[in-house]
Write a structure and sequence with these properties.
The complex is a heterodimer of chains A (401) and B (325). Chain A is an alpha/beta fold and 401 residues long. Chain A has two domains: 215 residues, Response regulator (Rossmann fold, 3-Layer(aba) Sandwich); 109 residues, Rossmann fold. Chain A has eleven helices and 17 strands. Chain A has a five-stranded parallel beta sheet, with helices on both faces. A four-stranded parallel beta sheet of chain A has the order 9-8-10-11, with helices on one face. In chain A, strand 16 and strand 17 form a beta hairpin. In chain A, helix 3 crosses helix 4. The longest helix of chain A is centred in the C-terminal third of the chain and has 20 residues. Chain A is globular and about 70 Å long. Chain A starts with 6 loop residues before the first helix and ends in a 26-residue tail after the last strand. By secondary structure, chain B is mainly beta. Chain B is 4% helix and 53% strand. In chain B, the strands form seven sheets. In chain B, strands 3-2-1-28 form a four-stranded antiparallel beta sheet, with no helix packed on it. Chain B is globular and about 60 Å long. The two termini of chain B are 32 Å apart. The chains are: A alpha/beta (401), B mainly beta (325).
Chain lengths: 401, 325
């Protein structure tokens, strides 16, 4: 699958011509409201270089979440016919934050677009957010887990529906804590995301009382001179309860289970993985959502970023339905209020944390074919909302808008 | 006995007028995962006297034909199974659309209206002919279905659209859409026919719709002891025959609420099992049966003392409860 330029990006640069006349169901004169959302992504996004496939056979879906946003858009359109609001989405791929800023600004002028789903790496997202700081625009981060985005790099015009690294590792360590598997051996890959995952794990371990017994870097290599960094048996000697693999490529991690020197569960990037979504989650009407996704994206299964993109469109839809308006400020205020009860399809209703704009939602702990547990685990309590046991809570937040 | 004889006898029992199956007093519980219905006799200390094997994923159940038949929607096989109550066996199947969940039967018992959660529609099916007469498009994931007493109006929830669709059965068209709470699930139609209650799972409320205006006239909030607002997920509802008291199951809050329908005040909360959804009153209204989906048991609640007096272990993921006279 070759990355293709989104043809719509050319079309989107046309101005007023994109306005579609409202369609009324009855012979009434009241016009439909327009709610256009835009969806931006990065051409040649390095995060999607890994196709999760060997010779074309897909072992895990690392793909882009656009189709999932379309599932929510279809649901929004059904609602839109009733509340007389015309929902639509424009999609564009840009080469840089500068590129994307120009497209968003032109959409703002031509179509009053205020809500932008952003499938971007953290650095591009932050730059884009900074450039749009003074505009009436709200960016939804649907794929970047970086804790810095919810911390020192936070911006008031960015909301996160994708879980943070802190939420994902908290979910995993909560589970380990309930099992008493507290001694963790870490195998860490060479990518920056791998280092970020391990850093988050260290915070989670401290939070829930687990112990990281060692962190061993690995390389992808068959050169016997590198064996202490590539041979799983050699790297997993020692004493520990679980092996945590930080491997965003998953090329190494997939092969760690059953190769460890001791018989131990593998967690993190392989084995038991914390995730925003797993196709095999079967409660809370997940199956119906999965089916609707598969109709739009045949031969694919929805992944975590897909769920986050779907959730972002759902949030925008609920905001317009409940405020009975398409006004940006009214909708944004609603999104940050405690009246938002977003269907996370994982049990608890979701809402955005006021201190860092992270969506609170359960996290699934899944293997390749089953969800073993859903975090937060019932053993963990919280003063106000148990979902806040996952991720950075208000007192610890380093985000200051 | 030859297979032909058995077949003939099965069809005979379907149309039988001689053998009456009234008054068994049995409690029927459908199970989503074990694909069967447990038949419980309260007079034998709530013993499970039989397991009826059904098509896959049995959920909503209704009696028909003076309680001689029990119909159950089987979501994974896209059929409604017809059970002969006298023999406690499945005798027929009525094909539906994909994933039938909840259904209602017309007053003359000739038609049934079933919500298909996978195809975003409600189907009107002629029971004897087994033909889909009409289909009404809804928002995604339709669930609760109820028909007005005069048979002219059908109401159906759309869980994803947060709406109640109002269908004029004469025209066969949706005439109104009422925006309610988040994830609306099931209905309760009060005996006066004026109020339609709808449970909203994720906003934790029951909304009262005034049928004359299709407007929400009241919102009922719940907060049982020891639980937070976000844990309250109301789903199933039932009421006393006089309509004075409504009972609402509160899902993840593991309680049921007893509500005075005139004042809409909560009379009491009763702790039951894990994730109660299905609920039904005994014919004498002295006991309430609650299906707890995530503890695989049935709570028996004493309506005089408002306490759960028994927990009857049943099959896996009990969904609905139905009680015979």
């Amino acid at each position: 699958m070759i990355e293709q330029l989104r043809k719509l990006s050319a079309a989107c640069l046309f101005g007023v011509a994109m306005m579609v006349p409202p369609i009324t169901l009855h012979a009434e004169t009241s016009a439909s409201k327009l709610l256009r959302i835009c969806y931006v992504e990065l051409e040649d996004d390095p995060r999607y270089a890994n196709r999760g496939a060997i010779g074309g056979i897909v072992f895990r879906d690392f793909g882009r979440p656009y189709e999932a946003s379309q599932v929510a858009l279809d649901d929004a359109r059904a609602i839109g016919r009733v509340i007389r609001t015309d929902f639509g989405m424009e999609r564009a791929a840009g080469r840089s934050a500068d590129d994307l800023e120009k497209r968003i600004e032109s959409w703002m002028r031509s179509e009053s677009i205020h809500f932008v789903l952003a499938d971007l790496p953290a650095s591009t997202l932050v730059e884009l957010g900074r450039r749009l700081k003074d505009e009436p625009v709200l960016l939804f981060n649907v794929s970047a887990p970086d804790d810095s985005l919810r911390g020192s790099d936070c911006l008031p015009n960015i909301f996160h529906t994708y879980p943070s690294d802190a939420m994902l590792s908290d979910a995993l360590v909560q589970y380990l804590a309930t099992k008493g598997w507290m001694q963790i051996l870490v195998l860490q890959g060479p990518e920056p995301q791998d280092a970020a995952s391990v850093e988050a794990l260290q915070h989670s371990a401290k939070k829930f009382g687990a112990k990281i017994v060692d962190v061993k870097p690995f390389v992808l290599s068959r050169d016997p001179r590198n064996r202490t960094q590539s041979n799983v048996v050699l790297m997993t000697e020692g004493r520990y309860d679980v092996v945590y693999v930080a491997d965003v490529s998953s090329e190494f991690g997939r092969y760690v289970p059953y190769q460890t020197a001791l018989p131990r569960p593998v967690v993190g990037g392989a084995g038991l993985m914390p995730t925003a979504w797993s196709w095999n989650w079967d409660r809370d009407a997940a199956v119906q959502l999965q089916h609707r996704y598969e109709k739009l994206a045949p031969e694919r299964r929805m992944n975590g970023a897909g769920w986050a993109a779907w959730e972002a469109v759902k949030a925008i839809t609920q905001a317009t339905v409940r405020t009975k308006s398409t006004d940006f400020e009214l909708m944004k205020t609603f999104l940050l209020s405690d009246k938002l009860t977003l269907d996370t399809v994982k049990g608890n209703p979701g809402s955005f944390r006021p201190w860092d704009h992270q969506l609170r939602a359960p996290v699934l702990l899944a293997t390749a074919d089953a969800v073993i547990a859903r975090a937060p685990l019932p053993q963990f309590l919280h003063q106000t909302n148990v979902l806040d046991t996952l991720g950075v809570d208000a007192p610890e937040s380093t985000c200051h808008f | 006995m030859s297979k032909l004889m058995i077949l003939a006898l099965s069809f005979a029992s379907l149309f039988s007028v001689a053998a009456s199956a009234k008054g068994t007093g049995y409690v029927f519980v459908s199970h989503e995962k074990t694909n069967n219905i447990a038949v419980i006799d309260p007079r034998q200390d709530y013993k499970i006297i039989k397991w009826i094997d059904t098509s896959h994923r049995p959920r909503d159940m209704h009696f028909r034909n003076d309680r001689r038949q029990l119909l159950v929607a089987c979501g994974d096989d896209d059929v409604i199974d017809v059970i002969d109550v006298a023999t406690l066996k499945v005798v027929d199947h009525i094909p539906t659309g994909p994933s039938p969940e909840i259904f209602a039967i017309s007053r003359d018992e000739k038609l049934l209206y079933v919500s298909d959660e996978e195809s975003s529609s409600v189907q009107e099916i002629s029971i004897d002919d087994k033909i889909i007469e009409r289909q009404f498009a809804t928002g995604a994931e339709p669930e609760g279905v109820v028909v007005s007493p005069d048979g002219k109006t059908l109401y159906v929830t759309s869980e994803v659209s947060d709406m109640v669709h109002v269908v004029d059965l004469g025209d066969g068209a949706v005439t109104d859409n009422i925006v309610v709470g988040t994830r609306p699930r099931r209905f309760l139609l009060l005996p006066n026919g004026k109020e339609l209650w709808v449970s909203n799972e994720l906003s934790g409320q029951v909304m009262v719709i005034d049928r004359a205006t299709d407007q929400i006239s009241a919102t009922i909030n719940f907060l049982p002891p020891g639980f937070r607002q976000v844990d309250v997920t109301p789903v199933g509802m039932t009421m006393t025959k006089d309509g004075a008291t409504a009972i609402v199951t509160l899902g993840r809050a593991n309680h049921i609420a007893l509500v005075d329908t005139a004042t809409r005040k909560i009379q009491d909360y009763v702790l039951v099992g894990n994730r109660p959804w299905g609920v039904a009153l005994s014919p004498d209204e002295k006991t309430l049966l609650v299906a707890n989906g995530l503890s695989d048991d049935l709570s028996v609640v004493d309506m005089a003392t408002h306490k759960a007096i028994r927990a009857v272990p049943v099959g896996r993921v009990p969904h609905s409860v139905l009680v015979d006279d």
